[in-house]
Amino acid sequence: MKNLVHYEIDSQYATKVAYFSMEFAIDQSLKIYSGGLGFLAGSHMRSAYDLEQHMVGVGILWSYGYYDQDRHKDRTLDLKYTRKYYSFLEDPEVRVTVNVNGQPVQVKVLVMPSRVFGSAPLVLLTTDIPENDFLSRTITHKLYDPNEETRIAQEVVLGIGGVKALESLNQKVDIYHMNEGHALPLVFELLNTYKTFEAVREHVVFTTHTPEKAGNEEHNVYLLAQMGFFNGYSLKEIQNELHYYDEKFCLTIGALKTSKRANAVSKIHEKVANKMWKNVDGRCEIIGITNAQNRRFWVDKPLLRALEEHEDYGIIARKKHLKKILFEEVANQTGKVFSADTITIVWARRFVEYKRPELLIYDFERFHKLMHNTTYPVQIIWAGKPYPNDAGAINMFNELIELSHGYKNMAVLTGYELNLSKMLKQGSDIWLNTPRVTREASGTSGMSASMNASIHFSINDGWHPEFAKDGVNAFSIATADASLPIHDQDHYDHKAMMDKLENVILPLYYNDMKEWVKMMKYAMNDVVREFNSTRMAHQYYKWMYDDEGQVEK
């Protein structure tokens, strides 16, 4: 097959890169993503297209996506799985074979051309075809399948199947980029070509996205060998070559040992990651490339035009219009009518305990007073998807739904995918971010919110300290020491958050709209300078792929 990249390549981005990721959030209609990792990958693919980079994405065509977020009859969270179909994918009539648990599995290759959504092209893999038995077909049914053997099989398909697919499509690749460790089996397939790990490393880079243990996947090394993760190489040979003999094999450690270079996704995360993995023998260096989002996709064009034309009244009017669009969705889902004249706070991202979606209600009496404040009224919206098997996160989500029944100015929305995410970012006044400090590697949702004049109100973690000028383009929450017990951190952070909200943010919004609009403009302008993903995509080429070194820190 001819080159998949159909646009003219800018000569400074001529290195041929294959970007492997378990998920890509390219468009609402292509449901092969769960959350932040996919949102980041989607923005990267769009900016690769914008910069005319020689890049192709490699992922999996999930038959049922992640899950469809719906409601039970009592309005609590319901997880549904609906088969997806896509007419815009092209079939190059290519099949490759991978070995999973000693059995050959056929992998069908499909291609999403760059012209469909204005992104780098995607090569998507599926085992859900008639040539396979039922068990093999289920490998690519659900993103992040909770069954351990299925998850390993997915990684074999992505890594080994992805390399074979590119070869069968006659695509020359200089650099293989693993976006998280899921695609690690690709290095064992490349070993067939390059013969030594030393040679393989020259063609592999790796991005680590989280300090969370759950995000740094581990499996029993004997199970990995049995499942075909090491591509037929003996376990002893792999252990000796990598000097890695732990019974629990960590994919992140494996990736750090088999890449020429790795990156963390913010300046804080760079420090955290280097400290976290400092004792890994033979690992590559970890540099910092802060995540970013694609403005072309995320920004509201009329709002941007009002900013560029220096029309304060236009910014105010457009923001109110965007709020009304969001509030139509609120009314549709909850039967509540919100006001465009009332400050609207949104907490929306993956629902997980360390991100603290319930920090606002930590002191319930204070929360109750906030919700009944007639001098400075507020509206608060929550949204986000918990992991399907995270009972604690699902319970938190349902508790907030139950609580919302008692407040006409509180809503919990379902269906948190690209379209709703964009609607929330464009229609909110405040984008609230409350992770425990050092545990949010980047937290990119606030970037696309700031692009739409939603003020980022955040703990000093992830990307926020690189962007925020407190009271100028964002609001920062004085943050507890990460070494404190969790209860003490929550108590301290909640008080600091509420003090800033009640004493600074609400009075400013209602008493000085001129100053508020100035903050909106600073947010929109400042976020583009460093957090539009064209900067990120450029740095990946220069610092990770082409070995030009970091010009700035």
Describe the model.
By secondary structure, the protein is of the alpha/beta class. The chain is 41% helix and 17% strand. The chain contains 21 helices and 19 strands. It has helices spanning 36-50, 114-117, 134-137, 148-168, 185-194, 197-201, 221-227, 235-242, 251-258, 267-276, 295-298, 301-308, 312-334, 364-371, 391-404, 418-427, 445-450, 464-467, 486-511, 513-531, 533-545, and strands at 17-20, 55-60, 68-71, 77-80, 90-100, 103-112, 122-126, 175-179, 204-207, 218-220, 248-250, 261-264, 286-288, 343-348, 378-383, 410-413, 430-433, 455-459, 474-477. A nine-stranded mixed β-sheet has the order 5-6-7-2-1-8-9-12-13, sandwiched between helices. It is globular. The protein starts with 16 loop residues before the first strand and ends in an 8-residue tail after the last helix.
